[in-house]
Amino acid sequence: MISRSLAAALACALLAACGQGQKDAPAAPASPEPAPTPSSAPAGPQEATNGGVALTDTDEKLATGQYYDGYPLRVAPGKGTVITVKANGFRPVIVVIDSNRQKVTEVQGQGGEAQLSETYPPGDYYILVCAADVGDTGRYTIEVQSSTPIG
Fold first, then answer.
1. Selection from 80, 75, 148 nearest residue 115 by Cα
2. If you ran DSSP here, which 8-state letter would residue 147 be given?
């Protein structure tokens, strides 16, 4: 489970990312708790791919109605990252935020699929998956691949 402070930071990033706010996500307030590390955070993308996961009405939700899930991502030096989300029942949005909780990249899906291909500096990030439209839920798979630099 994501800590309340991280959930609030993710909500700020998603508010901007899911078409409900400004272009760049505002900085989250300083948290008295440290952000989870990949080992203490929710199931990673590789685990989530096995059998799929779902956005449900029990997930964290923005005030504007979008449900979201978050996954840790550790980027190694010199590696490109390809994130693919295939959804059933909603138009997916992929957002990547850095360890400072700032939005780095975002892509809105076409139909039921979204794909983001980037080369990030080494470090820890979070992948956020949300529905583009308020209140939408459904099952999805997420696949994360790491390779040589993209571009």
1. 80
2. E
Lookup: tokens for 53: 């996961």
Report how far residue 116's alpha carbon sits from residue 125's, in angstroms, rounded to the nearest whole number: 14
- Cβ neighbourhood burial of 96 (10 Å; 0-12, 13-18, 19+): buried
Tens digit of each residue's pLDDT (9 = 90 or more) over 112-143: 999 999 999 999 999 999 999 998 999 999 99
d(CA 48, CA 98): 20
Question: How much is the pLDDT for 10?
Answer: 47
- Tell me phi and psi for residue 8, to 5 degrees: -65, -40
- Bridge partners, 69 (sequence order): 129
Domain 4-147 CATH class label? mainly beta
For 84, residues 6+ apart whose C-beta sits below 8 A from its C-beta are 113, 114, 115, 142, 143, 144, 145
Structure-block tokens of residue 45: 């993308």
Task: Burial-class residue 42 by CB neighbours within 10 Å (0-12, 13-18, 19+).
Answer: middle
Residue 26 to residue 6: CA distance in whole angstroms: 14
pTM for the model: 0.69
